[in-house]
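Troubleshooting log. The previous structure file for this entry was overwritten by mistake, so regenerating from the original sequence record. Sequence copied from the archived sheet and checked twice against the printout by T.R.
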Amino acid sequence: MKSELTIEAIQARKKEIDREIIALREEADQLDVALKVFKRFAAPTVSKPSDDDNKLGPARPAGVPTLYEMTYTVIRDAESRGKPGLTGREIIDAVAQQYWPGLKRQQVLPSIYTFAKQGRLNKGIDGRFRTPVALKNDSASDTTEAE
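Regenerated output below.
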């Protein structure tokens, strides 16, 4: 007798949930229509760029090495720890942590890419920057392994 009441209670609750689901789906459909109407007739919004987006971080602190020296050092340190180079974001984070608090990527990332174009750093197809010495060592070990 107890199991029959439990089964009936479960079936009743399931029917109630099914009715709620149908009602919620109908309401969601109506809200979709309302959104389409509002989007069609709403005035276009012009997003104003945030002041922080255009601001650069602080100037380079006095007494720190040049950007190239800082970049080369953080990449070399990462390579000595076994990393296969650093991405642009990783370089910025490391330079900011070690030398230049508050550094923003737009301040120095173009210069870092220029270092790669000039051959002062190497940028692999994986997007990682490496020291020129590390690239030569990697290619030399690849040649040795192939033999």
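The chain has a mean pLDDT of 82. Archived copy saved in two places this time.
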